[in-house]
Amino acid sequence: MRIGIDGSVAALTGSGTGRYASLLVRHLVSLDHDNDYVLYFRSRDRRQNPLWGVQGSRLRSRVTDAPLTLLRLHLNLPVRLRADDVDLYHSLGFFLPWLWRGKTVVTIHDIHPVLLSDHWWAPGNRTSYLALRAHIPLALAQADFILTPSAYVKETIRERFRVEEQRIVVTPHGVDPFFLAAPTDDELEAADRRWGPGPFFLYVGALASHKNVGGLLTAFAKVQRTGGLRLVLVGTPVGGYREDVLLPLIRDLGLGEAVVLAGYVDDALLRCLYRRAVALVLPSFGEGFGLPLLEAMASGTPIITSAVSALPEVAGDAAVYVNPREAEDIAAVMERVLADGTLRRELAARGARRAAAFTWDRTVSQILQVYRSA
Asked: Are 320 and 333 in contact (CB under 8 A)?
């Protein structure tokens, strides 16, 4: 079978969707010895896409461009799929080409643009929000099979859109093996020089309203009263959230240099940050999976996260849970984890055991079975 995949999704390097696309394609190409793959890129992907240049004996790459993203998706891509005799098209993130009439599989990472619309409808993010609100229902209706990273996402799709259960398959993400390996002493020393001494909490993810970064800052201000503690925010801002919300809030809370807006960092530095952090804090209002949880567990990092959506499903007993709508609760748990070294060691050990259950070998095996059934 010949399978087409839009590799341009992997260019979203600062998002969980882009990370999923990059990891899944690399493992599909490595582990699948029966099917052929065609990856579709844009010309600009050669500058920023981690999948650009990936090699495989059963892999081909194509470039398809158009002045507008939706024209490329709905007009150019179907023409290319037919020209390349593709049997099945797998969309790695929400969008399916309307004019493609072949077999289709779509990965739906979550439906939070629908469930958390008040957080998604924000200046600078409205084009993305409207595109997702329009395309998610259409993709759910069109796809032969729908992949979700968690049972939570499967159930929310069934409840909201009345999709048949047999068309939805839960395929949890795997842990990136890179984070299972310890950084070198030189890497850790370089990271220490860059970030300086002293304990810090770590946040990894988009800087966006639905991630509750504002709530995290409010909680951190309560914990940081005695000084000497920092909060490192790793991730790229969505729309104007950084300028309109985060920077004014940091100023109003008097946090100043105690908050480090690190932006996007490469995996080598991120791995060091996980290893040095007091804990990863992910107080989102909703996550379809939460890849930073896997990375933290693989790195031996304690986790503080919300008791909502897919987060307990992924983290299990390797996290301490909070109510994301209560800054006092988040702050109290941060203080508890900071003060209790025994608890941190227990969480790290549980996380290492739990991370071992999330493998890309298993994920690829599940997805290949879906391809065969489509």
From this structure: yes
> Is residue 261 located within the same domain as residue 131?
no
Q: How many CB atoms lie within 10 A of CB 195?
A: 17
Give me the pLDDT at residue 233, please. 97
Shared domain for 351 and 263, answered yes or no, is yes
**Lowest mean pLDDT segment, chosen from 5-14, 23-32, 147-156, 328-337:** 5-14
Give the integer Cα–Cα distance in Å for 157 and 185. 46
Please check whether residues 147 and 242 belong to one and the same domain. Answer: no
CATH of the domain at 305: 3.40.50.2000
Domain identity same for 315 and 169: no
Structure token pair of residue 348: 């790290």
Residues 335 and 238 reside in one and the same domain: yes
Domain that holds residue 278: 177-355
Residues 333 and 239 in one domain: yes
* Same domain, yes or no: 138 and 189: no
CA 13 to chain centroid, in Å, comes to 10
Indicate if 328 and 349 belong to the same structural domain: yes
Q: Per the structure block, which two tokens stand in for 242?
A: 């950084």
Q: What is the mean pLDDT of residues 161-179?
A: 96
Other Cβ atoms within 10 Å of 21 Cβ, number: 27
Q: Is 196 exposed, middle or buried (0-12, 13-18, 19+ CB in 10 A)?
A: exposed
Sign of CA dihedral 288, 8, 86, 361: negative
Q: How many domains does the chain have?
A: 2
Cα 42 from Cα 361, distance rounded (Å): 28
- Count of Cβ atoms closer than 10 Å to residue 244 Cβ: 15
End-to-end CA distance of the chain: 11
| Choice between 67 and 355, residue whose per-residue pLDDT is larger | 355
